[in-house]
Specification:
Helix content: 25-40%
Mean pLDDT: 92
Strand content: 15-25%
CATH superfamily: ApbE-like domains
CATH topology: T-fold
Radius of gyration: 18 Å
Number of domains: 1
CATH architecture: Roll
Structural class: alpha+beta
Number of strands: 10
Low-confidence stretches: none
Number of helices: 6
Order of helices and strands: EHHHHEEEEEEHHEEE
Strand order of the largest sheet: 1-2-3-6-7-8-9
Largest sheet: 7 strands, antiparallel
CATH class: Alpha Beta
Distance between the termini: 32 Å
Length: 241
Amino acid sequence: MGTAVSFVVPTREMPAPEARDALKEACRILHEADAVFSTWNPDSPMSRLRRGELALDDAPPVLREVLGECELARELSGGWFDPWAMPGGVDPTGLVKGWAAQRALEELRDAGLAAAMVNAGGDIACFGERPWRIGVRHPLDAEQLVCVAEVDGAIATSGGYERPGELLDPRTGEAAEALLQATVIGPDLALADAWATALVVLGEDGLEMAAECGYEAVVVTADGRMLASAGFPLAAAVPSV
């Protein structure tokens, strides 16, 4: 789906060959998700559905599952996350990367690993005996951090600084400009991913809305301010930002 995925798997409590087998299964899940959902591949079921060549009832069950997740995210966000408002037809890209990474992580958990991290282009799902400490980069300077967060679950970041104009306001069709960046932490990476996208469009007013659904966030406003919801698990702020 146009991104790279990396893994961190401590193996002190599992023989390395078994850990490698678990990683192979996790990678299989990711490749299968790419084959179904990639909008880069014109022959994927997602691309065919977008062109009207495939009926939803005839699509793979996982495609219907993800679109159901998209409907939930659209409802929870009050329509600020809306894959059906994207040009070219429904596009679940803002959620499905997190969904696939979360499924890969669950494969590692089910295999018996004590801890693991799956990093899908900066959107991270993780578990372990203690929270992971993860730095949130500044949207205007990759060498700086906005903060360091303690994460036991999922963390997703969205912003238009790498590909300007990619994130669209579903209500106007124009490029989202409310925030430079939004980072969301919660129990599930699919919804964290969707909330991060929604907040960039909605702006700082969405912090409380996300928190009511169990997702805490830190955002960088257009004028460079850092704002965080009350429950954001901040391990350290970075004064230079």
